[in-house]
Amino acid sequence: MPNAMGEDVVAEQRVRAQQGVLVQLLTSERLDLLPLAEAYARLTRRVAEVIGVERVSIWDLDQAAGRLHCRHLHFHGSDSHSSGEMLRAEDYPVYFHTLAHSRAIAAHDACNDPATREFASGYLKPLGISSMLDATVRRSGHTVGIVCLEHVGPARRWSLDEQQFCATVADIVVMLQESQERRELQERLYQQMRRDALTGLPNLTRLREELGAMDLQRCGPHALMLLDLERFGEINHSLGHRTGDQVLCAIASRLTTDLPPGARVARLSGDKFALWLPLQDGADPLALARSIQACLREPIDIGAARLAVTARFGISLCPEHGSDGHELLLRADMAMHDAKGTLHGCLLYDPVRDRSSARRLGLIHDLRGADQRAELFAVFQPRVSLPEGRILGVEALLRWRHPQLGNVSPGEFIPLAEMSDLIVDLTLAVLRMSGSAWHSWQQAGHELALSINLSARAIGDRGFTEAVLRQLAESGVPPQHIEFEITESAICDETDQGLETLRLIREAGARISLDDFGVGHSSMARLSRLPVDVMKIDQMFVRDMLRDPRHAAIVRTSIDLAHSMGLSAVAEGVETAEVAAALARLGCDEAQGYHYGATLPPEELARLLRPGGTAP
Ligand code: C2E
Ligand code: CA
Ligand code: CA
Hints:
Layout: H1 2-27, H2 36-51, E1 55-62, E2 67-75, E3 78-80, E4 86-88, H3 93-101, E5 104-107, H4 120-127, E6 129-139, E7 142-152, H5 160-193, H6 204-213, E8 222-229, H7 232-239, H8 241-256, E9 264-269, E10 272-278, H9 285-297, E11 300-302, E12 305-307, E13 311-318, H10 325-338, E14 346-348, H11 351-367, E15 376-385, E16 391-402, E17 406-408, H12 410-419, H13 423-443, E18 449-453, H14 462-475, E19 482-487, H15 488-493, H16 496-507, E20 511-517, H17 524-529, E21 534-537, H18 539-542, H19 549-564, E22 568-571, H20 577-585, E23 590-592, H21 602-609
Parallel strand pairs: 13-14, 16-18, 18-19, 19-20, 20-21, 21-22, 22-23
Antiparallel strand pairs: 1-2, 1-7, 2-3, 2-4, 5-6, 6-7, 8-10, 8-13, 9-10, 11-12, 15-16, 15-23, 16-17
The structure holds ligand C2E and calcium ion (2 copies).
């Protein structure tokens, strides 16, 4: 009895020790955080020690194929990451069958045990294995592998505690597999968040991280090129998003072909990409950008369509233009914006321009709220009939008196307002101020035509048009006295929304004039379909028409064209009586320019309207 008691105590202590090892592996060694192979190595080594067996292995079961693959074998104190061994169900049918139907196989005499004797001659005897203890690894009710303990030397019986221990090891294997899968999933998600789903390229986040991780002062000369596809919106709009996506993928693949080592390509957003390129000694970054540009310009075949895409490039250089990735990106972006309108559409960051961009940023900031601070006001330029010179209407032009900088020209602040959405508020402000001026002239007996400029950038926005028409109604000026000036390019390049805007304006009863006519490049076919009432011939042709015969020809043709389309022709920039007379001879209907009057505040314009009144 005392002896049996003693055995029990020893057995219990052994069980505790065994379990303690497993607890330690999980809690202080955090096996679950290790790569799977490393975790298997530690687990099998400790199991071999604590149970006292020579071989411990972990196998994966491919149920459908009937295969067991050895993933890890611990053998006499040495590890093999994967023994590479594979067992087939057709060679060991009884063993596979038993695995499928029991949670464990405890073979005291493995060479003669019905479940394991298939291994006797080819495996057990050559290796001297006498006893085997297998526990199945089960996930969601299916056997997906085994943990296998093999004893070399005299046969041993497996106690229930040992069988239980082996089953616990199998459960730990499941846990390790699951945490490995969780890590892989996290890694995949992490990668996905840094990759553009359409092209598979790294995205902006990833590019920022990569640039952030580099030592830019030491990585040697590089160029960061940002590129923006031109008129990509049109492709998307007219050929559909699927085609747009195909174009983007084609561009991505061209950009990634033949990249030098160390180069990176990323897609930043819609139609913007980035290239990070090492520069060989003396390499000209602009020439490099142009060659990439030329390669992108090669036609892309999509179905039956051949599309050509051009891209604008903005370039910053490392290390000259920035001490970190953020600065390089910002400066390349700045250059990309300024590249619009340059001959090749490629521009290198220029610190001199940057100073002016600081001014621009400041102006955008100050422009917000300029109306409330009463810094904005409208001035009016008369428009007269030809040949009489009678004032028929006025064009409202916005002025900004900046408290520190003085007068800022609309040529400078209007494009900024367009960039920042402030244009909506500015246009509404001009309408409001012009409306009250119009009423004051009306009280003096003059019902003038009032021209308001609508920004090209804004008319594509339906909300903008609606706000303008609401403000027009509020102003109380009868719509038939209002004319909205829209540049030719605004309606010719843009989407159907531009046309829709024209339709809405006319429906409201106002007229439309085509501003700056002659500088755009609209086709005759397109022009003839536009719902406009007036054509304003650009001042650049009018001003010097008596000195430049080509400009004179453009003015003459424009007047004829306007008349043939049933529009009235207005010449802008009339600075002399001679030009006015020449225009009258050509049959031009109206004129506007310094010859008739500069831009005036409402009271001075009222004075001009009085019989015999003159501009100050
Ligand atoms: P624009 O619509 O072509 O306006 C005519 C511009 O030519 C005005 O310049 C006017 O002062 C100037 N001008 C008038 N007569 C003559 C002349 O005989 N000779 C010369 N050399 N110039 C003449 P401004 O006021 O500086 O406006 C420049 C541009 O700013 C405008 O060109 C227009 O595009 C934009 N703008 C002005 N006010 C507004 C506005 O309220 N809304 C919008 N969207 N744009 C505006
Ligand atoms: Ca205008
Ligand atoms: Ca104009």
